[in-house]
Backbone:
């Protein structure tokens, strides 16, 4: 039986950048739910879950936050084409190479709600890498550690057995990704491709590996200790 390593991927700042198109959907959702026009362009959202962001916008009102969250997910697909985002360097090549291996499984560990994650990945033509395996997403009341625990549970379910920490690798672009990976005993890879944190800041969080950006597939596999395909 093949021993598999599960790569638990963050989305924003790790796989792609929407050029903050999500803010357009958030502002519209907030205006519809709360009746006020808001400017969220300077709001620092890196590392926060969708649920946490919407709760902040709602001033801590859980019911309003949940309504903003649901409306945001509905509006996001139409907002994505309004900004010129991008898939980040080497992402398609690495995902393709990892998907071709029998000993690696790509899954998601993201602060996006499920519908938002799918909308972003479909828009940037990356959904096929996760369509079958899925992952763990933001839901009302969730924080990143709880999402990480759900991702670990799903990976173990997929594997059909409990997984040791060295077979779970969390890949993200913020200290939040590093800390939630540590919660589940996973190895953590921090990539400085997001807008919020530089390499030195990520290194200070003591990830297993810190990278300026995702390397080419062979180098990535080597850094993770996966060996040749």
Residues:
């Amino acid at each position: 039986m093949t021993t598999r390593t599960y790569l638990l991927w963050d989305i924003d700042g790790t796989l792609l950048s929407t050029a903050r198109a999500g803010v357009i959907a958030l502002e519209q959702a907030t205006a519809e739910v709360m009746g006020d026009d808001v400017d969220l362009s300077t709001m620092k959202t890196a590392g926060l879950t969708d649920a946490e962001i919407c709760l902040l916008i709602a001033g801590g009102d859980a019911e309003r936050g949940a309504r903003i969250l649901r409306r945001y997910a509905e509006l996001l697909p139409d907002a994505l084409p309004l900004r010129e985002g991008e898939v980040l360097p080497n992402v398609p090549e690495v995902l393709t190479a990892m998907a071709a291996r029998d000993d690696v499984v790509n899954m998601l560990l993201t602060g996006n709600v499920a519908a938002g994650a799918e909308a972003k990945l479909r828009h940037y033509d990356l959904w096929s890498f996760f369509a079958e395996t899925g992952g763990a997403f933001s839901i009302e009341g969730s924080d990143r550690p709880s999402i990480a625990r759900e991702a670990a549970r799903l990976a173990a379910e997929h594997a059909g057995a409990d997984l040791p920490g060295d077979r779970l690798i969390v890949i993200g672009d913020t200290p939040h990704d590093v800390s939630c990976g540590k919660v589940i005993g996973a190895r953590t890879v921090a990539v400085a491709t997001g807008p919020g944190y530089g390499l030195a800041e990520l290194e200070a969080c003591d990830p297993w590996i810190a990278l300026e950006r995702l390397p080419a597939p062979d180098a990535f596999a080597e850094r993770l200790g996966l060996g040749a395909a």
User: Anything to note?
Assistant: The domain at 5-17+86-223 is CATH 3.40.50.1000 (Rossmann fold).
